[in-house]
Design brief:
Layout lengths: L3 E3 L14 E6 L8 H10 L5 E7 L14 E6 L4 H6 L1 H4 L4 E6 L2 E2 L2 H13 L5 E3 L1 E3 L6 H11 L18 E4 L13 H12 L3 E2 L5 E4 L5 H21 L4 H13 L1 H9 L10 H22 L10
Parallel strand pairs: 2-3, 2-5, 3-4, 7-10, 8-11
Antiparallel strand pairs: 1-4, 5-9, 6-11, 7-9
Length: 305
């Protein structure tokens, strides 16, 4: 897969400084909406860091706002968001990688908390970036957020049970790869493997704002396409079709009730009607995963931004 760098600053030679960060923003279709997250990265970066925007080659000219000479833009032809995340191992060269999406917002305080943890904890290879829903206050924005982030919704009273793969801080060496990962390998193997090894850290100060101002139609479509694309990736990695379909039905029949129980202590913070909205999101996921198994990914991998 070819690479098209734009505004590519000179690489710093030698071993990266301990605690240095590669800020990587991944977006397939949302480059023109990436200004806020790039401004946040600019405020958070320090000498020795690097900032990279990974996108499709035909989207690099959509970059918003003023010139950013500190930013390296890498365009990959016809790449899905899964392929873009897989390419992180080929372009990030600092000690740690902080992965963000164009619709996530990270404050300078979060970046500072990540640096503090990296400096204090030599025993970790991954920092779970928790989620907050500070901007997408519509009921369907909440439903979309909770379907993914309920168990990593800051603040937490104990360690999170998993790490979201789309916003995470990971030690570069722990990825054990210099070449690009296979499409889907970041999501299905690399980050889950590192998390399972138990060398993780988290803090309630380390979170992103997941910005998704959705209505019913956009929420349903987003989760359908996400599930269809994810199911197709699982099949590419040899997960049996029956297991993927069972997972889809789990999202419809059991997961909404499990999330409602987990949310019980914070139910007063949510808009009314969240229980049935979570069931609707579960339906979208079930339909998407079943479609992905039976018909393949279609255009779903390009409809997630």
């Amino acid at each position: 897969m070819s690479e098209t760098p734009i505004d590519h600053p000179a690489e710093q030679p030698g071993t990266p400084a301990a605690g240095s960060i590669s800020f990587v923003v991944v977006t397939e279709n949302g480059v023109r909406h990436a200004g806020s997250v790039l401004d946040a990265v600019d405020a958070a970066r320090r000498d020795g860091d690097e900032a990279i925007l990974l996108t499709r080659s035909d989207r690099v000219t959509d970059l918003p706002g003023p010139a950013r000479p500190w930013l390296r833009v890498v365009g990959l032809p016809e790449a899905s968001v899964f392929a873009l995340r897989g390419h992180i191992t080929a372009v990030a060269r600092r000690d740690w990688i902080v992965l963000l999406e164009e619709h996530t917002f990270m404050t300078a305080a979060t970046a500072a908390a990540i640096r503090d943890m990296v400096g204090e904890r030599q025993d970790i290879d991954l920092i779970v970036i928790l989620g907050r829903n500070l901007t997408s206050v519509s009921p369907w924005g909440w439903a979309n957020f909770l379907h993914t982030f309920t168990l990593t919704w800051a603040p937490l009273d104990g360690p999170p049970p998993f790490s979201p793969v789309t916003s995470v801080a990971v030690r570069r060496a722990a990825l054990e790869a210099e070449a690009p990962l296979q499409e889907g390998e970041w999501e299905l193997r690399a980050i889950p493997r590192i998390f399972a090894q138990g060398r993780i850290g988290y803090a309630n100060e380390i979170h992103i704002d997941h910005v998704r101002p959705l209505n019913f139609a956009s929420c349903f479509a987003l989760n359908f396409h996400n599930a269809r694309a994810g199911a197709s990736q699982q099949r590419r990695f040899g997960v049996p079709a029956r297991a993927v379909i069972v997972e889809g039905w789990h999202n419809l029949a059991r997961r909404p009730q499990q999330l409602v129980r987990a949310l019980a202590p914070r139910w007063h913070e949510l808009p009314r009607g969240m229980a049935w909205r979570l069931s609707v999101v579960g339906l979208a996921f079930c339909l998407g995963m079943t479609t992905g198994v039976l018909l393949g990914p279609g255009k779903s991998p390009h409809k997630l931004d």
